[in-house]
Write a structure and sequence with these properties.
This protein is of the alpha/beta class. Helices cover about 45% and strands about 20% of the residues. Helix 5 packs antiparallel against helix 6, helix 9 (about 295-310) packs antiparallel against helix 10 and helix 12 packs parallel to helix 13. The N and C termini lie far apart (about 150 Å). About 30% of the residues are buried.
Length: about 550
């Protein structure tokens, strides 16, 4: 009995122990289930994070073989994770960036610190290129990871935004430089053109007084030539700063080219570059355009000069014209106005333009010429100004060692060319005793204009200011007012003409100035003033403008301009 009791007691104890062990196992199982559920939730949590992260998590081994990549990679470069596992990370990097990437990775393997962000061009599955920036840490010695872990972010849009901001800032800086240049040009033009006007004007009068055989005639011609060259530089500055006034008319680029190739400037260029050959391919049915002939002639000479100077050992320059219909961007322009254009192209077989210099070629005063060997640094800037002034476009193609090609696109017009005649005989613009009021604040300029007009048989009254002109017209009359636009003291030309119209509502006037805002000139002309005559002016240009204004007032046919 005792043995039975002992056996029964052991069984009870063993049953109790078994129950405790079962309970512990059940608790352990429950704990494992809770842990598994927590792990499952954790995995789902981190999977959702990596799947929806704005970044890509990638792990590579010491050979840069991809061992893990987050599912978010598909959103950024088009590949599913399983398509990348086992491939080299360098395969995704473009050929241009690959050497740098290999070097940077080799350096990163030598440190345990976090690697600073670095950006590379990555090839998307569809062939496009994205810019990805990564920061990484070497965890190859950590058995839990055993890899180099990188956090990679797509910065393509950010880089594009930065580039747009940079370009905007560059345009702002350029605009500020041009505004400063405009202020400088305005001051120079106003003062220098007045001085040049006196120099050239009186030289022209002397030339008319002396005979063909006079020993001083060559000297006078040299003075005129020097003054005109100085005036041309000032005009270039005004064109760049958009402070000059261009008188446009219907022109044909073919005629501009013919006139240029017969000019003394081209003869000089050819003589200085005897190994350069110029040839033309001109479209006989070329569209007409609206432009200032002198302006375009300057543009063409600048292009030809640059082309010739790019071939010190000789070569060929091709001048070509053609009609084009534009309906897509051209050159560096993102948008173009759809329509017909006349195209002027100048191509050379010279040394070409380096990639470093190409973004700067149209900047004012940017030049590769040696100081003292010609050029002001305004040549291509004037070309750009012409394209901008005439609402056109420019396309530059150039490779170092293979030459350059400049193609200028000008909007076509359907208006026909005017039938222009030769030089006008002085008798056509001589005066008939009319009274001319000359208003100019510069004494030398007033006296020059008076001398010229007196020679043309006009009666001249002079006024040193707008106020003085108004005071005269309150008591007297003038058939025409020759009105300077910019006067340092008192009223300017616009204010003066407004006051004059209050006294004589139909008063005729022409505008003279070496510098003036186009808007200001337009306002005066809208009030009834006639032509704009740029200083320094000649006897013919002033006389013709005066005669035309007077004849329009009387209803007579004005003389035909040259």
């Amino acid at each position: 009995m005792k043995d039975e009791g002992k056996t029964k007691g052991r069984l009870i104890e063993e049953m109790a122990l078994l129950r405790r062990e079962v309970a512990e196992l059940q608790e352990a199982r429950a704990e494992l289930e809770r842990t598994a559920e927590a792990l499952k939730r954790s995995e789902a949590y981190f999977r959702a994070i990596t799947q929806n992260s704005s970044d890509i998590i990638i792990v590579v081994d010491a050979l840069a073989t991809i061992t893990y990549v987050s599912p978010s990679v598909e959103r950024f470069i088009g590949y599913r994770p399983e398509e990348l596992i086992g491939r080299s990370g360098f395969e995704l990097i473009t050929e241009e960036d690959n050497p740098r990437a290999i070097g940077d990775f080799s350096q990163a393997l030598l440190t345990k610190e976090v690697v600073i962000p670095n950006a590379f061009n990555i090839r998307h599955k569809d062939g496009t290129v994205r810019i990805l920036e990564g920061v990484g840490k070497n965890l190859l010695d950590d058995p839990a990871v055993a890899g180099f872990v990188m956090n990679v972010r797509d910065i393509t849009d950010r880089r594009q935004t930065e580039e747009e901001r940079r370009q905007l800032q560059e345009r702002l800086n350029r605009a500020e430089r041009m505004e400063a240049l405009g202020t400088l040009a305005g001051g120079v033009a106003h003062d220098l053109n007045n001085a040049l006007g006196v120099l050239i004007g009186y030289s022209e009068l002397i030339l008319n007084d002396i005979g063909e055989e006079s020993p001083v005639r060559p000297y006078v011609l040299s003075v005129i030539e020097g003054g005109e060259k100085a005036s041309a530089v000032v005009r270039d500055l005004l064109i760049l700063a958009r402070r000059g006034v261009q008188t446009t008319k219907v022109v044909n680029l073919n005629q501009i080219i013919h006139d240029c190739l017969k000019s003394q400037a081209f003869e000089k260029l050819s003589s200085l570059n005897p190994l350069v050959r110029f040839r033309t391919e001109l479209d006989a049915d070329l569209n007409n355009i609206m432009a200032a002939p002198g302006h375009l002639g300057k543009v063409l000479m600048n292009l030809l000069t640059n082309a010739a100077e790019a071939m010190p050992e000789g070569g060929h320059v091709l001048i070509r014209t053609a009609n084009r219909y534009l309906d897509r961007p051209v050159g560096a322009f993102d948008h173009v106005r759809e329509g017909d254009y006349a195209v002027l192209s100048v191509s050379d077989s010279g040394k070409g333009i380096s990639e470093r210099d190409r973004p700067h070629i149209f900047e004012p005063f940017y030049t590769k010429k040696v100081m003292g060997q010609g050029g002001t640094g305004l040549g291509l800037a004037v070309v750009w100004g012409a394209v901008r002034d005439y609402d056109g476009y420019i396309d530059v193609q150039s490779q170092e060692g293979e030459g350059s090609s400049f193609s200028l696109y000008f909007p076509a017009t359907r208006d026909p060319l005017l039938d222009e005649k030769g030089p006008v005989d002085v008798s056509r613009y001589k005066g008939r005793g009319e009274v001319i009021l000359v208003v100019d604040d510069v004494p030398e300029q007033r006296n020059l204009a008076a001398t010229m007009l007196n020679r043309l048989n006009y009666k001249v009254v002079m006024a040193a200011s707008g106020e003085e002109a108004v005071a005269f017209l309150k008591k007297g009359k003038a058939d025409l007012v020759v009105l300077d636009m910019i006067m340092d003291l008192g009223m300017n030309g616009l204010e003066t003409y407004q006051e004059i119209l209050g006294i004589h509502p139909s008063q005729k006037a022409i505008i003279v100035s070496g510098f003036s805002e186009m808007e200001l000139v337009a306002q005066v002309q809208a009030l009834g003033a006639g032509e704009y005559v740029r200083k320094p002016y000649s006897l013919e240009s002033l006389g013709m403008a005066v005669r035309r204004a007077l004849d329009r007032a009387s209803g007579e046919e004005p003389p035909v301009p040259r």
